[in-house]
Amino acid sequence: SCVVICSDASHGEALGLRPSRAPDRSRDPSPRGALRRLGRRLMASLHSHASQRGRVRAASPPHPVPAELIYKAMTCSNAKNIDEYVAKGIKGFPNKAVTLYDRIKVSILHTMSVGKHKRSNEATPLSVKPSANMKGLSLSKRLEKGETPLKEAVGKKPLVVGTIRMGFGHHRIAYSCASWGLHEGGETVFHDLLAVESDEAKLIQNADKMYSTGSRLASELGGPFEKAWGALTKSGDQNALRSTYQMAENLKPLLLDLPKDTPIIATHSLVGHTAVACGFKNVINLVIDNYPQWFVIVPGAVNLVQGPVNYQAFLRMGIPESEVKLGGHWCPADMVTNIDSDCDARKARRAKNKPVRLLIPVGGAGAQKKFVTQFLEGLEQQIKRGEVQVFLNAGDHEHMSRSFKHSLSKMGFKKGDYEIVDSMDGVYDFSEKLRSGKEPNKAITLFSFPDYFPAVATTDVLARVTDVLCCKPSELAFYPVPKLMLRRVGDHEAASADRACELGDGTKEVREVKDALAWVRLFGMEQNLLTNMNDNIKRNAKVGVYDGCKNAVKLAREMAGILDSDSEPAQVL
User: Fold this and answer.
1) Residue by residue, what is the 3-state secondary structure of 360-415?
2) Residue 160: enclosing H or E segment and its boundaries?
3) 362 vs 391: CA distance, rounded Å
4) pLDDT tens digits, residue range 52-106?
5) Would you state the pLDDT for residue 564?
6) Helix (H, G, I), strand (E, B) or coil at 258
7) Which of 147, 335, 516, 540 has the most C-beta neighbours closer than 10 Å?
8) 67-75 and 31-52 are packed helices; what angle lies between their axes, rounded to 10 degrees?
């Protein structure tokens, strides 16, 4: 039988729905009515798209439009054939070929993502400005009248670190790469696609809103919603890759102003896909997490992974050996170059039975409020007995700052009983004080900011002076600091906690508050536990486990032919 998508209600709705018997269901509030409306939106958008490509007539006739034709019209001008890429597999063991169901699903997902947005190959003009937070770093922006274009403002072949702010993770990894770019020398440009004012950036903003909302609801509601969200975050199959790439084809104006030989390190797969779609040849995609999924891969780029699980899995999935390399963990230069001294300082504190310092950050989506506030309240007696010191990073989330203050009030702590730090200078001063051997003014320090950069950077700065980083198994699970892995927000994060535990620098994921409190008690009771974690970190560092961003920067410059002849080559497998 032939499955079709009809463009007229009299011939049925999208996805094979039967024709409605009612004369007008346009306001039907039921799920079925919502699906009908989605079908109509899909057909309006896809038929318009197909007509622009000359594949169907511009008028909307009351005749069925085959799904095959719509999908072909949507993908015919793509720079990469994703269907061929994912179906190839390994010799003698091909993967599943694209099906009609896949084409329909991707068409719907793409329409939901881009709506009536029209693709463009016209470059968005770019300029740069100096970063107010990282000396020597240039930040991209849209070119305004009287400004110098980016291509004239920076030297030949600058290292471009491309990212998208979706939560803190992708930005944190991008800043880690930028720190190595500056550390190794050479011009470095931080290119956040969301920071470039454009219609394309608005598409990304809409996707970010949905992701952040889903993360918060999963964390707060738990139960069936958490289960559904967890399953969604682990469903990055071939169709997710197709949809991600199709989205990237719409973002090309945000990169087209750069020379095609520019070395680009992407810390979000959308940036990598966009660079490949634009024709860039020196593209490196930093694969997030420790859970292998199709949608984190960028066909046509060198996909660097943090551990052997992803490396082996991607080879088995059929990713060419030339496109997947084992690089190491994504960690900032300042943290990696000071691993030995920081670990020795933690060991010395344990030997003297000093209070255990706990750094508790909140992610960029603002999730985990319920878990971390209950965790904080459970530490009340240990804090009052002087056994624990707590550093709370509420980031730029005002609702988290209020929640922390409310919990502290319930615990009997008045405003003068804890310190509040609200500037990056204050963070640096606080960190330097602790590195000099002094103790914080109060047992509880709350870090809360009106701006985005301090929210991200504070965790990186304080990680060097804390004894334990208490966080969900996100990008922070790969940091060279002892970690208490708190309850995940997406199921894909569980594998990152496994990676930390197997390396000996973190615990397994802790799902319940009482278990997290038991671990804190254990950290204070057993000297060897944290001492061994720090020793493991030092051993891991000697074999390059935490050198991922360092290797990414070196490899990008090697690919672009701009690495100094006397420089050490990238250590990738």
Assistant:
1) EECCCCCCCHHHHHHHHHHCHHHHHCCCEEEEEEEECCHHHHHHHHHHHHHCCCCH
2) strand 159-163
3) 11
4) 444 444 444 444 456 678 888 889 999 999 999 999 999 999 999 999 888 988 8
5) 64
6) coil
7) 516
8) 60
| 115 neighbors 223 (Cβ within 8 angstroms) | no
Q: By C-alpha distance, which of 189, 200, 193 is closest to 164?
A: 193
CA distances from 23 to 10, 28, 29, 148, 329 (A): 10, 12, 15, 59, 59
Predicted TM-score (pTM) of the model is: 0.84
User: How would you list the strands of the sheet with 283-286, edge to edge?
Assistant: 126-130, 138-142, 188-192, 159-163, 264-266, 283-286, 302-305, 324-326
Q: Tell me the Cα Rg of the chain.
A: 25
Residue with tokens 């060991």: 347
Cα(150)–Cα(132) distance, integer angstroms = 18
Residue 74 has which token pair? 């949507």
Q: Which two tokens stand for residue 44?
A: 């309006």
Residue with tokens 């039921």: 30
Task: Say which residue the tokens 């690089």 belong to.
Answer: 327
Q: Which helix (H) or strand (E) holds 266?
A: strand 264-266
CA angle 398, 404, 408 (to 5 degrees): 145
Nearest to residue 277, comparing CAs of 310, 311, 259, 300?
300
